Amino acid sequence: MRKKRTPWPRWAKILRNILLTALLGFMMWDAWGWPTFFFHADLRRTERRMLFPEPELAAEIETTGGVPYRIELVGDTAVTAYPSHGTFFTIANKSVHHLKKGPNLICISRPVELPDGTGQSACYAALRPPENAARAVLALHNDDGDFLAEGIRKGEIYLFYARPEPDEYGRVQMGGNWFFLPQCTYELAFYDADGNVIQEISG
Q: What is the C-alpha to C-alpha distance for residues 163 and 35, in angstroms, rounded to an integer?
């Protein structure tokens, strides 16, 4: 006589179904190539799909709210990215910049906190500066006026911080023209240790 199996209690069946549904969901998530758990992992996966080798240069800047903004240089291409879509499943919000020969200027698409802690600012990065550059100065022109910014060296790039003057209430307001280079014009000069101009670019 065959022994009768004891049926699972109701709570065990519910738990089993939940676990099976979660497993199926994660398998579909992986099969469809959706976000990974980590921002850097998603960024590197995208770069591999674009057949990019390991980045030659990587700098990470902290933007407003503590969100990291990563700049990677791969040959004649720069990849910029920051995490989005929450904290559990995170994707890299990416932009690809095709570089010209020599120095290039790109704009960080998010406001950053100034190094001296005085508030938010727009930030610009000079990639591939001349090897003997000891100083860099950016002259930026947009609808809010003309601005000069002294470059701050960070690894193999120069960072420039610029913003308009605060209004009568002490607020700094920056429109989209601060975060989209085609809406600005600029001159960028690099100097050697003796203060001589060694290269200039404009856009």
A: 34
Contact 176, 170 (CB under 8 A): no
Residue 12 tokens read as 């065990």
3 state SS of 174: coil
Reported as a single tens digit per residue, the pLDDT across 27-81 is 666 555 555 566 666 666 666 666 666 667 667 888 877 778 888 888 788 888 7
CB 195 within 8 A of CB 189: no
- Ramachandran class of 181: left when φ > 0, alpha when ψ lies in -120 to 50, beta otherwise: alpha
- Name 184's Cβ contacts closer than 8 Å, sequence gap at least 6: 140, 141, 142, 177, 178
pTM score of the predicted model: 0.73
11 sits in which H/E element: helix 10-31
Residue with tokens 């969100």: 67
Distances (CA, A) of 78 to 19, 42, 45, 168: 42, 16, 16, 39
Cβ neighbours of residue 162 closer than 8 Å, sequence gap 6 or more = 121, 122, 124, 138, 140, 147, 149, 178
Summarised one tens digit per residue, pLDDT across range 121-145 is: 889 999 999 988 999 999 999 888 8
- Do 109 and 95 form a contact (C-beta atoms < 8 A)? yes
